[in-house]
Amino acid sequence: MIEELRKDFVKNTTQIIVSDTESRVLQSDNNILSIPTGNYLTSVHPFFYTISNLLEEPLDENYFYCVQIENLGKNYFFDIKTKIYRKSGQVALFLIDFTEHYKSVHKIKQARNESIIDFNIAQELNNELQVQRGFKNKFLANVSHEIRTPLNSIVGFIQVLQNTGLNREQLDLVNIVKSSSENLKSIVNDLLDISKIEAGRLEIKNKRFNLHLLLDELVKAHQIQAEEKRITFQFERGESLPRFIVLDRLRLNQVLVNLLDNAIKYTQVGNITFSVTTPSKNRRKIPIVFEVKDTGIGIDAENVTTIFESFTQLEKRGLFGGTGLGLSIVKQLSELMEGKIEVESVKGKGSIFRFTVEAGVSHDQKAEKKLRSRTSKSKESKNSKYRVLLGEDIEVNQLLLMRIFADHPDYSLDIAKNGEHVLKLLDHYKYDLILMDLTMPIMDGFDATARIRNHKNKHISKIPIIALSARCSDEDIEESKEVGMNGYLIKPIDERELFQTMEKLIQRYKRKGQGVS
Amino acid sequence: MSVSKKIVLLGHFGVGKSSLLRRFVEDTFSENYIVTIGVHIMKKEVSIAGEQVTLIIWDVEGTDDFTKYRPSYLMGAASFIYVFDASREVTYSDLKYNLEHLSEKYPHVPVHIIGNKVDLVDANILQENLLSQNIKPDYLSSAKTGENVEQLFENVAAQVLKND
After folding, report:
1. Range of the domain at A383
2. Which of A31, A218, A456, B64 could serve as a FRET partner for B152 with CA atoms 20 to 30 Å apart?
3. Rounded Cα distance, A214 and A218, in Å
4. Radius of gyration, alpha carbons of chain A
5. Is residue A468 located within the same domain as residue A399?
6. Is residue A482 assigned to a domain?
7. Which residue of B has its CA nearest to A119?
8. What are the tens digits of pLDDT across the range B117-154?
9. What digits encode the pLDDT tens for the residues A65-117?
10. Is B76 an interface residue toward A (CB < 8 Å)?
11. By the CB < 8 Å criterion, does A53 face chain B?
């Protein structure tokens, strides 16, 4: 019985052929392929040319797995064993038919290889996109930087010009120039931010800050803007909203400014409601929901998904201006902060933008006391005059700072044209603070600061130094910290921010027993 | 009288080895990717300077690890054709490593390097990539358009005859 089964199995799956070393058939059982004796195997299939090579191989037996052989219109997959009898010059070939098995293997490999190739192609495309994006970001960053420098002068001198006793008409015209230059400044800032975010160079820096104060500032600024458009601006602060939270204040402010600016920009009549709430008050980390609701132009359902993409604007006719980068920045910042931005909108009725983010809670009451005491001290000490040294090589920037300082009688300003000049003046006069441009001839701001910090005179070595620069890369800011600078202000300089920062640093300097006055 | 020579096509899967072979032997091309398993063999007779040679071309299942090639597939080869996909860097980034393996195991078998699918890439970017990795292919080809296919096999045949 077994012998019969074996014969039957072999008959259906195996063919044995004996040939000479030139592939001429001597014997064949013809179980699968019909090959007449005397024919050359090479005429059946090119695989059999390999017979002529066997004599040169060291082994008598060789195995060839999964050989595809087409014969009389049928495709086979054979595992082939060859055995050479060198003395007689004969070759035995055992063809074992694994067609069904290899067909199923083929299906699996087809699916596997296709998915790997698709993955490779996606990776290649992604690499290409990264290269293009890198180029774009570098271009944007460079161009934005080049625009910033002259913009610094424009914005600064407009502020100065406003306070030169202009008549009504002149003031109106200056206000138009001011508004346009501020728009331009915000566009340049958006471009820089987007290039930084896309290049992965924007870091979230969570620190404790007064949330209520930030919200008050935002509400005050936007209430004025809303009033100018004769729309109502309402603010709702949740009862359990903590005063001090831990989050990136700068980036949170940026998200909210964008959302509030948009609400005002796209609302012609009706009202805007800004609400900030939290469902929890006792945990160390709480979700905070910032919601901006407007009765503006709204968004088509089909566009709701694309409004967070770069260079997309809610209104295509250009009535509202801007680059269309604001919401893209909002989305990317919210993701960096591990928050979530959502939108609900009805075309012609209005929109609700909701930003939810987890924030750490700081219940530090001492911090509040400290803040109050600092504020009062700062007010008390305003009677004395502070002497500030500016290190700046560009004349127009020197002039701008001189004009700004002229409106602040509590401060006097001396000017050094490079880092070396700064060091010389420090040896002759006492200063409360130094404003240091980073890029200067002869000795730059980094070098000058490093020398000041190593100065043997304690008063000089401890003096507060603020970097003033149009450069705003994280590397520059980090380097300024490393050499010992206490602050970093990016040009165009905001007058209010400049004096707040100087005041803060001078007060700290005086508390430590240094300072001139 | 025609001599027969075994040529083996090697390379990662999906680089177009089977397509090159079909273009050369049958002058056909299909956009569909069909995986080769094991080995598929075709032959073509070519005439080089009046001398006939039958190329027995073994189209071996692609792999990124040449150490896994079955020795029986490569034995008796007169020449190897190493094919990579010019549009997928992953198929040539390990080329040097694989060539080292071949030269160690088969020191007397010449290797021809072919960058296929050039119809899919920007020539300048490809040249830049290849230069940066110090890869100098013998031919850049396209089985789809037929670019350089005939030439590369004839060149291989000529060299095989020369080495004979």
Report:
1. 378-511
2. B64
3. 6
4. 39
5. yes
6. yes
7. B88
8. 999 999 998 999 999 999 999 999 999 999 999 999 99
9. 999 999 888 999 999 999 999 999 999 999 999 999 999 999 999 999 999 99
10. yes
11. yes
